[in-house]
Design brief:
The complex is a heterodimer of chains A (322) and B (262).
Chain A (H helix, E strand, L loop, with lengths): L1 E5 L2 E2 L2 E2 L1 H17 L2 E7 L3 H7 L7 E5 L7 H15 L3 E5 L4 H12 L3 E5 L1 E5 L1 E8 L4 E7 L4 E5 L14 E4 L11 E8 L12 E5 L9 H11 L2 E4 L1 H5 L20 E5 L5 H7 L4 E5 L7 H4 L2 E3 L3 H11 L8
Helix pairs in contact in A: 3-4, 5-9
Chain B lengths: L1 E5 L2 E5 L5 E2 L2 E2 L4 E5 L1 H16 L4 E7 L5 H9 L4 E5 L2 H5 L5 H15 L3 E5 L10 H9 L2 E12 L2 E7 L4 E8 L2 E5 L11 H7 L4 E4 L15 E7 L8 E2 L4 H14 L6
Parallel strand pairs in B: 1-6, 1-8, 6-7, 7-13, 8-12, 9-12
Antiparallel strand pairs in B: 2-5, 3-4, 9-10, 10-11
Classes of the chains: A alpha/beta (322), B alpha/beta (262).
């Protein structure tokens, strides 16, 4: 019986979620009265193992296979390691790469899988908490199984900071190269463009509430009037209304302005991941239950098409006719 | 070439809603085609338009009500549809990832597609896991969170959208399951002609028995035990009043903060 957590790295750096997995994993291991073990797969495994050697970790397994993430390598290595150490709980990150291997690992090991877990507690069985319906509700699930797999939502647990003294053990996985059906050819930075929203002091950020591309001039005029930079949530970029370099969020840019004015943005967790570091957050949204109000400092629960023109006029601008 | 697209009718929650028991009250829900699946359907239809002899088949697990959203996929260009439902599915509390993978694997066995497209996740449950679980079950290759796709000579060259504005460039051998991220294309609106044509396209209903499965497929060690509205963690100061008044409050704040002069 043990808790086994799979760390994540990219392009030579351990990702933050790995340290959060140490915290979550230690919490669960304490509840279960067992050890916390980590796996580091691929890349500079010795260096990464040193990085994640934080207080509360008992053993770190290094699997020296490949440089960057390949889900075939991960799947084979984790299944072999889990067969050896027999974890009660297998913890993986609910990251893009986590979701590229965790379901296959759970299938391969015949473990029940619950993804995007934000909390858990042991009550004989394990009870986990998730969000559903875009964060409007939380649900709990009871897992009636001896062993199980969970993916842990990034940024939900604090990062483990204190140094540890875990045993580091090399694990020789027997990777069947002929069974790897994917080849990672490299990475590409996206976005570019002439505006760097990460440098802006004030961001006027627009979301789905703008309804149509034809309404964009309204928020462009507000940004101009305030001397702010225009950014957006994902749907606006998906629709092609603004370029990718304007997108704030998990898959976009992480921004830390003095003031972030979120207009017509509900506050999905992926968006919040990119803007919660703003000094002051102001939300304008018709839905008083929108998750954006959980992190906003100030809010106006009203129609943006009523409020924004008034705001433009407050500063001597002229709202465009839509 | 045959492309199977898995689609789901998802529930969207009104601003004001009630919870009854372990789910949101039916009266607070509206149903629509899952946003991510809409992009998957569009991708399949575009491939069928650019190549000869491509058949696009959509499959959904859902009650009769779901036919409305499946017809939407047909109206956008899918050729035919399957809907899987029966009493044991109707009575299940919810379907976990494994149950869905079981059912969809049986559909793949029957349809024998060259590859499968599905949305990254569903807007309601947001498991984000069914596509990859399905791939493992049926022995297909896979790629999760695909936001660019080019298929040639038995290989899917994809971009996977990672966090932080970085994409991974990966070649995936076919047959494969690709989970499609929003933004990969621009989903079309269904034309009136398409909607009319969709009414005449085949939409077959399968029971678990038809697929060679039995009730055990819905059994799960995972059981939902509660649903509740999360307590607001926020302590936002809400400005109240007319739009003129609230805009005035915000303006005062921005002036005090030194964001804007005047």
């Amino acid at each position: 019986m043990t808790v086994l957590a799979i760390t994540e790295h990219r392009r030579g750096d351990v990702r933050d979620v790995s340290y959060e997995l140490v915290t979550a994993g230690r919490e669960l291991a304490d509840d279960l009265g067992t050890d916390l073990e980590l796996a580091v797969i691929g890349g500079d495994v010795e260096g990464f193992a040193d990085d994640v050697n934080r207080d509360g970790v008992d053993t770190i397994y290094t699997v020296d296979e490949g440089e960057e993430f390949n889900h075939g390598v991960y799947t084979q290595a984790i299944e072999q390691l889990a067969t050896e150490v027999e974890p009660t709980a297998l913890l993986m990150p609910n990251s893009v790469n986590g979701l590229d291997y965790a379901p296959a690992v759970a299938e391969g090991l015949d473990l029940p899988l619950v993804t995007d877990v934000v909390d858990f507690e042991t009550n004989g069985n394990l009870e986990v908490t998730r969000e559903q319906y875009g964060g409007k509700v939380e649900t709990t699930y009871d897992i009636d199984a001896d062993d199980y797999a969970l993916t842990i939502r990034p940024a939900e647990w604090p990062k483990a900071e204190a140094a540890g003294d875990a045993a580091i053990e090399a694990f020789d996985a027997d990777i069947d190269e002929s069974a790897l059906g994917t080849t990672v050819n490299g990475f590409e930075e996206v976005g570019g463009g002439d505006v760097d929203i990460t440098e802006a002091d004030v961001l006027v950020s627009i979301g789905r509430g703008i309804d149509e591309e034809e309404n964009l001039p309204l928020v462009e005029e507000l940004a101009d009037t305030l001397g702010a930079t225009l950014s957006s949530s994902r749907p606006i970029v998906d629709n092609g209304w603004l370029p990718k370099n304007r997108q704030v969020g998990q898959s976009g840019k992480v921004v830390t302005p003095d003031v972030y004015i979120a207009i017509g943005i509900s506050g999905a967790v992926q968006h919040v991941a990119g803007m919660k570091g703003a000094d002051t957050i102001v939300a304008i949204n018709t839905d008083p239950n929108a998750p954006i109000y959980d992190i906003a400092d100030y809010g106006i629960v009203d129609d943006l098409f009523d409020v924004v023109p008034e705001l433009i006029e407050e500063f001597g601008g002229e709202a465009p006719d839509l | 070439m045959k492309i199977l697209v898995t689609v789901k009718e998802v529930a969207e929650v009104d601003d004001e809603f009630q919870i009854s028991g372990l789910d949101i009250d039916e009266g607070s829900l509206e149903y629509d085609l899952n946003e991510w699946d809409d992009y998957a359907v569009e991708e399949a239809v575009q491939i069928s338009e650019e190549n000869d002899d491509v058949e696009v088949v959509t499959v959904t697990i859902g009650p009769e009500r779901a036919e409305e959203t499946v017809r939407m996929a047909l109206a956008k260009g899918a050729d035919r549809a399957l809907r899987v439902w029966d009493d044991s599915l109707e009575n299940a509390q919810f379907l976990d990832v494994e149950s869905k993978a079981d059912i969809l694997a049986a559909v793949v066995e029957e349809e024998d597609p060259d590859f499968v497209l599905t949305g990254v996740q569903a807007g309601d449950d947001a498991n984000g896991a069914t596509g990859v679980a399905l791939a493992d079950r049926i022995g297909f290759e896979w790629a999760a969170v695909v936001n660019a796709l080019d298929i040639e000579a038995g290989v899917a060259s994809v971009h996977r959208e990672l966090e932080g504005g970085i994409e991974e460039l990966t070649d995936v051998e076919l047959p494969s399951v690709l989970t499609i991220q929003t933004g990969i294309n621009e989903p079309r609106y269904a034309s009136l002609r398409g909607i009319r044509q969709a009414q005449r396209k085949p939409l077959d209903v399968h029971t678990l028995d038809d697929l060679g499965l039995d009730d055990s497929v819905v059994e799960s060690p995972v059981e939902r035990t509660s649903m509740y509205e999360p307590e607001s963690e926020g302590d936002a100061t809400l400005w109240e009043g007319s739009a003129e008044e609230t805009a005035g409050e915000l303006a005062t704040f921005l002036r005090d903060k030194g964001v804007v002069e005047g």
